[in-house]
Write the structure tokens for this entry.
Amino acid sequence: MWVPVLGAATLATILSQRTVHGQESSEEKSQEVIVSEGMSSTTEETAAQAPAPKKKRGKKKYIIVGAGAAGFSALSEILDKEPEAEVLIISAEEHYPYAKPPLSKELWRAGSNDSTEEGPRFETSEGVTQSLYFEDQETRDKYTNVQWMLNTSVTDIDVRKRLMLLSDGSVYEYQKCLIATGSVPEMLPYVPEDLDHKITYLTNLSDYNKLVNVVNNSDSIAILGGQFLGAELACSLASQKKKKLNVTNVFPEAGIMSDVFPGYLSEYIENKMINDLGVNIKHSSIIDKISSNDNHKIEINLSNGDHVIADHLVVCMGVIPSVEFAEKDLEIDAFNGGIVANAELESRSDVFVAGDVVSYYDMVMKRRRRVQHYDHAVRSGEIAAMNMMGRKIPYNHFPMYWSELHDLHYEGVGITDSTLPTVSVWEDNNNKDYKKGVVYYIEDQRIVGAILIGLPGKGQQLRHMISNALPYHDYSDLKNLVSFKNNDSSE
Ligand SMILES: Cc1cc2nc3c(=O)[nH]c(=O)nc-3n(C[C@H](O)[C@H](O)[C@H](O)COP(=O)(O)OP(=O)(O)OC[C@H]3O[C@@H](n4cnc5c(N)ncnc54)[C@H](O)[C@@H]3O)c2cc1C
């Protein structure tokens, strides 16, 4: 698992070594290697003759920090409009950009043996087989103006001087930059050292690869967390065809996905997970102690006196925005977390922010928000890139998400917070069969969000309606809003 690395030296100390009243000292200058394309060859020759360089320095029109969904979307947008632009894209991960949602769902269905040289492949809900990676090497090779730095973190930013310090000690100057550093997992506060290897946090492809290995060599897995990630993973691991696993899902909330679903729906899904998949669910359970038992298994003691024994623990307690390196120069949202940006996704002059890490002003909902979903990452990356290229477009996309739990596919639109009053419309209301229906979330007599269950693709239509401040008076307003017929686009 990756944790942000803060370099021993900060940008301020490096700059103070390098500059005398803002001028580069001649001694320092001779030690620099200018790595950016298009820079003077004389400097490169000087550097080649010099002893081992201490630090490299480059200058780029655009620097993108983070090569996830938002960073890659921004890169694609820039290359679409300015195919010759000099871009540096920096990622703490060892992998080129890929989609994260299949790591907890489709990839387990496909089975880890389906990996090819180009990386894991999976089957979409439309039955199309595709690579986890967003693009192949051949496509990347076409853009010699794009410099990739993988396994590298940005450790400091000096917004006034437009400089970034990287974990390898190099310093880069940007004209415009995008911060798209996503999130890091919420960690357990304390774990005995001898148990470190028995605990996984699922945030990226390296974690997934580790977990595949663990699952292949385990009989029992405990998953901590019963919201999006924990619930998805519990279903995926319990329904694997090639390996029968004993899966226990432990979480402090009263029900599975209870942050999102109304109580009756949470209970319905929980029962399906227990009865159809055999998941051992321990809700309302807080962890008291984690230790190793006499059989070298992990033992989890719960505060209600119960306990769980498993070969391995996967922690899915939620994620926190990855902002550490930016805290010095950029405003952090004390309430929502993340880097504060305006409606054009700009935080300070020429510093843009997108994806999980941005706290932005939502023009539609009239409030500051931070959204940790794929669709938002892609769209915000695209809008941020347009604004980096000089447009002044507000980000007024109304984000949505999708997920699946066992045989239940759902899409979420707008604000889907179970603390809000909800009104549900089901195709089959009498038999309490919740396979097809919509749960609406109401705030101040307006529909602010919805979950669509078993109605793939219909979220797009509802998104449009909700983003236009759809009023709510009573049930009759909602009864026919979404058609339960497949491929009916009449609403
Ligand atoms: C297992 C899993 C399943 C998910 N399933 C769904 C789903 O079903 N539906 C849905 O809508 N969403 C889902 N999500 C959430 C969705 O994937 C994220 O919201 C989305 O990936 C966010 O994109 P991003 O570009 O902001 O961040 P990321 O995709 O996380 O990319 C950020 C990148 O920045 C890098 N980075 C961080 N700090 C630095 C630094 N200082 N220097 C350089 N690089 C840095 C990170 O290593 C990472 O590669 C899932 C997430 C996970 C982990």
